[in-house]
Design brief:
Radius of gyration: 17 Å
Oligomer: single chain
Number of helices: 9
Shape: globular
Distance between the termini: 13 Å
Number of strands: 8
Helix content: 25-40%
Structural class: alpha/beta
Order of helices and strands: HEHEHEHEHEHEHEHEH
């Protein structure tokens, strides 16, 4: 199937999953994950109506940004682990950082965005299962609490929600408990009404379990393989 056909199918699946739990499908944003995807394939997705894209690596996107700068309404999100020494470059390239996983990174991004007179939209990454191989703040951790409480100090950041990647399992149903925990965390943070924090985005769900994520309340699913197939190499032609 083509990228256009894949997007159409994914949208149908999102709609069906939302309706199963009496949600409005329009409340779920579809993000195309373009890690290692070449600019022509991204353009194909854009032509199919996709406007939200997620990149995993700062340097990789830096090499593609010039070729895609004529897509003015495309929205670029940094969704991969971001080292603090790359915070300044990421702030230059992206208006959205969806993987803030430490108080120190938030401080670095705020400083870089202030220097650029830029307002940066961010999500806090939660390591919902406590996996040592994954980044993200533990749910209910002291550092997470401190980050939320000190949000007003980050005048150049807009904290808009949280994101996670649950443990991978061949059976998508195994992700459901983690998605439920994330939804609970999301609601608990929202209920506390931290100044400077707006809980609008609950980003969870990737290609093999996004329908479960939608059923459990995700407002943004991040799909790579389901849209682009097995990653086409950079520089390849469509």
């Amino acid at each position: 199937m083509s990228v256009i056909e894949n997007i159409a199918q994914v949208r149908q699946q999102i709609q069906a999953a939302a309706r199963r739990v009496h949600r409005n499908p329009d409340d779920v944003t579809l993000m195309g994950v373009t890690k290692t995807v070449a600019a022509p394939h991204i353009r194909e997705a854009y032509a199919a109506g996709l406007r939200i894209f997620g990149e995993n690596r700062v340097q990789e996107f830096a090499t593609k940004a010039e070729a895609l700068k004529d897509l003015p309404d495309a929205e670029w999100h940094m969704i991969g682990h971001l080292q603090t020494n790359k915070a300044a470059k990421a702030t230059e390239l992206f208006p959205h950082i969806d993987s803030v996983d430490s108080l120190r990174l938030a401080q670095k991004l705020n400083s870089a965005a202030t220097d650029l007179s830029k307002k940066l939209s961010v999500l806090i990454e939660i390591n919902i299962a406590g996996e040592s191989a994954k980044s993200g703040l533990p749910p209910h951790s002291a550092e997470l609490g401190e980050l939320l409480k000190t949000a007003p100090e980050f005048s150049a950041l807009e904290i808009r929600g949280i994101m996670t990647v649950p443990p991978y399992d061949e059976n998508p149903e195994q992700s459901r408990p983690y998605f439920r925990k994330m939804r609970t965390q999301f609601e608990q943070i929202a209920s506390r009404k931290f100044p400077g924090v707006r809980m609008r985005v609950l980003s969870m769900g990737i290609s093999h379990e996004f329908e479960i994520a939608v059923e459990e309340g995700s407002t943004c699913v991040r799909l790579g393989t389901a849209i682009f197939g097995n990653r086409p190499p950079l520089g390849s032609k469509p």
